[in-house]
Protein: Ribosomal-protein-alanine N-acetyltransferase
Amino acid sequence: MSAEGAAALPARLERLRYQDLGRCAELERELFPGDDPWRESVFASELDQGHYYLGAWVGDELVGYAGLAVVGRRPVAEASVQTIGVDPRWQGRGVGRGLLRALLRRADAFEATTFLEVRTDNAPAMALYVAHGFEVVGLRKRYYQPSGADAYTMRRLPVSEAEHGRTAS
Structure:
């Protein structure tokens, strides 16, 4: 991340701890009330599996979280953005962007192609992902339950591959 991007982030990013998971579950209920929000136990399972989870803090308040799972090794590693959530009071201020960039740095360290799912009606999130090199590669009908909302599957090549593709054309 550039120094400018780092300076613009209004929150500090740190690894999530088990004691933070109640707040994550609280934010999930607020953010995703119609789509089976994650419970504290789901977040705990993600940490138990060794996945990479970050929290965004403003002062002592956890205002966002994000998680990444990486499978495989170079040169065939794949990463999956498991979740990103930002307190509605902090949306639009760069917290989600900062969390996403941190996840992508981690994925790029593994030279991993990164995938995610996003609701087809979530234009702000899709714009964020496209701005960070993601492209739509599929559609998952009725992916989110119980609402039945559709999701796009999006993919981002590792920086090294993406840069190689730009120089080859």
